[in-house]
Amino acid sequence: MTDLLSLVDEVGTPVYVYDLADIRFNHRRLRAALPERTGLYYTLSANPHPELLREIRAAGVLPAVRSPGELDAALVADWPARDVLYSGPARRDADLDWALRLGVRTFTVDSPAALDQLGRRAAGLRGQARCLLRVNASGAAPSGADPDSVFAEPFRFAGRTDARIVGLHVRAESDVDGAASLAGRLASVLAEHGMPVEQVNFTGFAPRFAGLLASWTRVALEVDSDLVGTAGTLVTSVLDVRDAGEWQVVVLESGANHVGLFAGRRTSRSLVPELISRPPSGELVDTVLIGQQETPLDVWASTRLPRMRPGDVLAVPDTGAWGATAGLVAFAAPAAPSEVVVDRDDPDYHVVHVSRLSVTRYP
User: Fold this and answer.
1) pLDDT band at 108 (very low <50, low <70, confident <90, very high)
2) Quick one: average pLDDT of 191-218?
């Protein structure tokens, strides 16, 4: 185990510590649970740290991206553009143009309109755009096409010249058996309308997929925390402690600002922080961990811990996914909106300032 306190002495807190050995172990575990020909895609949104990406690429896992920023990160990590799966619910024309010019040829689409848009942007380029129709196994949902609408009008996805449906991308977060069955039925319907399915991707790993996927010729799983989740530990300090009845409220350096939009998931994933700066003493008490932001998202864990005091250092395990880059601005590496300041009282200098926020990694 990495000496976390020694790292804290060097770089301070808060700090995320990633261990590449965990990524190698998790990859071996995933491969052992799957049929030999099953492919793996890594969702860069989970953690796009360049050193982690290089390790993941070296293991033979392919990249799944959803923004120009993530595409650039994949290419910097030395994945060829032809290996990239460009996913996500919708894209701007400029983002598609950028991806196509760089050589990306495999995309997901959620609707006939998205398929038409991709066809227009790909027109005239060398090589047809290959599309995986993204559907949600649980029916209508925020992401992916409603399967019932595809069954009702499969012809709406057929007949394109520059962007062609060649497969499926099934979001299967819980009902694995239902997802595999749905993929089979959709593949039959698409084939009847001139869209033979060459590839089926599933999002949401479960070992039970192994037996269900053996009959498919080309199947891939998209993974995120299964690969990098246990590879990260967040080390953060206690800033303040206050009593609230029988509970202690512990204010940490890290809240939604460091664990992002997924802070609330920490409780359900049973991530119990460990006190590492001193030997724990006394009985455990009910504890609420919060950050400094004072927003609902900042209440990110309820657990039982020893009595805390300011200056204590906690290590939060299994935070390799959905961490430092899962905040509102950095998640999925989007282009931030421009901000323009104007002064309508000044006729000569109506536009005062134009700028755009940028997230930059400093070595």
Assistant:
1) very high
2) 74
The chain-wide mean pLDDT, for the chain, equals 86
pTM of the model: 0.89
Q: Backbone phi, then psi, for 202, in 5-degree steps?
A: -120, 140
CA torsion 321→326→331→337, rounded to 10°? -170
What confidence tier does 361 reach under pLDDT thresholds 50, 70, 90? confident
Phi, psi for 96 (deg, rounded to 5) = -65, -40
User: How high is the pLDDT of residue 62?
Assistant: 98
